[in-house]
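Internal tracking record. Fields below are filled automatically when a chain is submitted to the structure queue. Please do not edit lines marked as system-generated. If the sequence contains nonstandard residues, flag them in the REMARKS field before resubmitting.
Queue: standard
Priority: normal
Entity type: single polypeptide chain
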Amino acid sequence: MQDLVHNPRRVAVIGYDGVQALDIVGPMEVFAMANFHLPQGVAPYEVILASPIGGAVKSSSAGGLVFGETVGLEQLPVDLDTVILAGGSEDGLRQVIFRSNLLAWLHSRQTATRRMASVCTGAFILAAGGFLDGRRATTHWNSCALLKELRPQIEIEPDAIFVAEPPVYTSAGITAGIDLCLAFVEADCGPQTALAVARQMVLFMRRPGGQSQFSAGLSVQANATPRLRKLLAEIIEEPTGDLSIPTLASRAGMSERTFSRSFRKETGTTPALFVETARLDRAKALLETSDWSLARIAERSGFASLDTLHRAFLKHLGVTPGFYRARFGSNV
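SYSTEM-GENERATED OUTPUT FOLLOWS
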């Protein structure tokens, strides 16, 4: 820790026109929170927002969010500890891979940089530079097949939240970059600092399972019509309360029969099973991050009783809620 007082780790987060805004903001916030939660006077991270030529960078986000005054690659300090490549739009990736100096710069820094990492489709940048050849890697679940097609030398891990193949690290879709940076903080500063950051940002210290648990829900929503898609998102966001078929059908503006038929056709599952899964996911998150009683978790997850919570866990996971907390909880 004493070394960090005098030698903060420099982290360069690299964007470009068309970058995904959260791929930049998420990692930067993790490192900023780490600085906040360490003892006064200790600043382990100096985070620099960079781009190929510097200046303003326009993201792909709605409304054209612009990151101003980025640092050009050639102006970055020599002693970078970690380089993080954000993902972005297809056009943005093409431009930065084929029409900028980024790949050449990455190769020039390969030896001196301790970690090179990508968030989401930023893996395509590392792949284009050959950094992932012969390594395991991941990217957004919807882009894994394309990455494998373009670069068969890579061993794709489609179900991983992130993959560590030091000195190269790749993470899955968007928010998985936050998980990866939280792992960096844990490795650099210890589990207590990482846990403090996770609590502050309302994150899992470690997400159990892989990204399939998220891509399944996303694919269900993607295949649904806009009216039903909105309802699915609302159920995931708030799985408590009355989510019976009559109530859901009314919220969707359909008869019960039409709603049940349309739901199964568009999602491949029943309304009852989708609701139960949403409630189970909420309960899992609360077990991982809170010290609430099981009865309170059952209530806040939408289960009618503690017994109903137990039955759902045994049915879907084969373990009790107590066992799940002991395995995945953060010991809060």
